[in-house]
Amino acid sequence: MKKYLLFLVFFVSGSILTAQKKDTNPIPVIFDTDIGNDIDDVLALQMLINYDRSKVIKLLGVTIGKSYPRVVEYLDGYLRYQKFRPLPIGFAYNGVNPEPYRYVPVALDTLVDHKPILKPKRKLDSSIPEGYKLQRKLLAKEKDGSVVFIAVGPLTNLQRLLDSEPDEYSPLNGTELVNRKVRLLSVMAGLYNDDFDFPEWNVVQDLHASKVVFERWPTLLVASGFEVGSKLLYPHQSILNDFPHKDRNPLTISYEVYQKMPYDRQTWDLTSVLYALEPDQAYFDLSAAGKITIEKEGHSRFSTRSGQNHHYLIIPQEKQARTLARLVELVTGKK
Questions:
Q1: Tally of domains within the chain
Q2: Whole-prediction pTM
Q3: Nearest alpha carbon to residue 278 among 51, 84, 45
Q4: CA gap 71, 74 in Å, rounded
Q5: 62 is in which domain, residue-wise?
Q6: Among residues 16, 151, 197, 320, which is most buried (max CB within 10 A)?
Q7: Beta strands in the chain (DSSP E)
Q8: For residue range 288-305, what is the model confidence (pLDDT) as tens digits?
């Protein structure tokens, strides 16, 4: 019965990408990620690749908030493995988290039949711009009020964007440029219920940046808190069964290196992608409008205030199965 119900969820939701493809122009998206820290960034990236292939979005570029140099090679190699067009990549120079951590160096160094599974052609050098500079360049080219920003790591690049001055890309300063071009920031950051009480990881990695972004971001901001992705666990069975060439697929290899299998990983970053691109499909409830403030130690506090443009996501128990099924569908590309 459970398998049958899951099939129904997949069957019904499978029409959504098709409907969006027919009814709308692709949504311009900028993805800011700390890929290399947690495995959910890789799953979120795969979602965006699949959305782009379905013409729901146009992925404009990826900016990296983790300052480990080989992440540029991993991202470029991953896109090439997917036979995806070469996207502009930006990097948070002198940012946070410079350590290798787990899966990036392993995936880059993995050989199958004496050949690397990842074959990057770009690495961190002068050809890779500052993340915020790339964001300025991409924003300046898009229509006013059109861009969706998805940020799922430390907010270093976004803070630098807000603080930026007019340049060769735009006569506007960073805050003005964001206000003109962006319609939504969907951000994985903070905690917004009583299930947990600690400063959330993304927030505290660059606490100054988090305070600046939540205080000064001028457009609609929707936060997915730690508690949301914690209730939606990506099933390890999908990693084992849903991806071709599992022994040479960088997604499956990265997942299996990140922790000892079998494990079901929280879908924190995936929830921010899903809400940003399917906000009308009721996968989540949305809080009232208000203001999110980052306190001294990194706690995120929400207060209802008229005229404010912050919200946070809520995932009621009755929506969890359908939402998780949609996330799996979007990662695997299977309908």
A1: 1
A2: 0.93
A3: 51
A4: 5
A5: 2-332
A6: 151
A7: 27-33, 57-66, 89-96, 111-112, 115-116, 147-151, 182-188, 221-224, 233-234, 265-266, 285-286, 290-294, 300-304, 310-314
A8: 999 999 999 999 999 998
